[in-house]
Amino acid sequence: MSTPQPPSPLDRFEAIGDGLDNVRRRPGFGWLLAGVWLFFLNKPFENILKHDNMAERVLGLAAVVLFVIAYMGFFWYARARNMARVRAPLGVQIGFVVVLLGLGALMLPAAGESALTTLVFVEAMGMMILPLRFGVALGVGLLALAELVLRTVPGWKDDGSYSLAIVLGGLAVFAMRRAMLRSVELAVARKEFAELAVQEERGRFARDLHDILGHSLTVITVKAELAGRLIEGHPERAAAEVADVERLARAALADVRAAVAGYRELSLAGELVSARSALQAAEIKAELPTVTDEVPEANRELFAWVVREGVTNVVRHSGAKRCTIKLAAQQVEVLDDGSGPAPGGGVSGHGLVGLRERADEAGASLQIGTAPGGGFRLAVRVGS
Questions:
Q1: Alpha-carbon span 378 to 384, nearest angstrom
Q2: CA separation, residue 330 to residues 31, 128, 305, 384 (Å)
Q3: Could you tell me one molecular function GO term of this UniProt entry (predicted)?
Q4: Is residue 244 part of a domain?
């Protein structure tokens, strides 16, 4: 039975991409929710069918059909605009409201008082598409209109049902509109978080490749230079160095492949062995610990990165003759007797910046400064 492997960086990139795709809008059923409420046009529809005047009946039926089509069409348009966070011109929005009011008015001769039901749909549409202050103003105006005609038209009675329906309809659509906007904002936030995760993963992957190749290529360069100096006077030693170069190149290739596979971890003991080899090739005296038992398992990978980056800098930049590595349970130090830190100190270079990030992630502190007696000191301490 095979052991499941952790996801590689490429797998993580693909998963994050899937997350971005999921943020894209999916078709919803808001239109169905809006269409259900058209059931309440049944009363004016029934009254129109019972009306005696044929011309007014035909006009009323045509107005009902056009009202349903216009209402659903305007709703679909407004919803698409809201989801795209692009508002239609105010003139177009007001035009929608005027069209619905006009169609409702055409129902009055045949439907009578029941045609006031259309005011609820007009207020719902206004609250959906208009700016909030205009939607509220429209609701107040429609409420006043309903109260006025119910009190002044002979035979019409005011039982409060139309006014209550206008108020409740406006509030319901306002709540739905706010929920839609919040949903869009949440989708945008998820998209931004997913994009940030992609950027962080790319940065982590680039940092790993820099640290891996920076150290390996530095050692390969030093050994190749040493082999070049030895090739005439000491061909056997030169051949051994060339063999080491080949071995290191293969190891670097394996490290890169492991990093791409996403499950590469450093060994503190292995890094100390590599450090000794690199320092000897650069003709730098190495004073290194021979055991790592006192370092807790949780700290070993971070300390291994410190050893790798510290020794790479010693070989590449310091001009040192001696390098010392000190290990403790909570701290690792890399010291040399070279040229010391650059003027002003601080963290510079991709390797040290990456090491700072690793230390921060582990809750450790990175220290850079002058070693006792001169030279450069790099230290990482875990905890206080």
A1: 17
A2: 63, 62, 14, 9
A3: kinase activity
A4: no
Check: CB of residue 315 under 8 Å from CB of residue 284. yes
Q: What is the DSSP string of 275-303?
A: HHHHHHHTT-EEE--S--TTS-HHHHHHH
Task: Give me the CATH number covering residue 301.
Answer: 3.30.565.10
How many structural domains is the chain composed of? 2
The closest of 160, 191, 186, 163 to 17, measured between CA atoms, is: 191
DSSP 89: P
- The residues pairing with 380 across neighbouring beta strands, listed in sequence order, are 332, 366
User: For helices 161-230 and 297-313, what crossing angle results, to 10°?
Assistant: 50
Picking from 140, 161, 194, the residue at the C-terminal end of a domain is 194
Q: pLDDT (tens digit, 9 = 90+) per residue, 171-228? A: 887 887 777 778 767 777 777 777 776 677 676 667 667 666 676 777 778 878 888 8
Q: Which tokens go with 262?
A: 């996403």
Q: Which of 130, 161, 194 is the last residue of a domain?
A: 194
Range of the domain at 74: 9-194
* pTM for the whole structure: 0.43
Confirm whether 218 is domain-assigned: no
Beta strands 322-327 and 285-287 are parallel
DSSP string, 200-213: HHHHHHHHHHHHHH
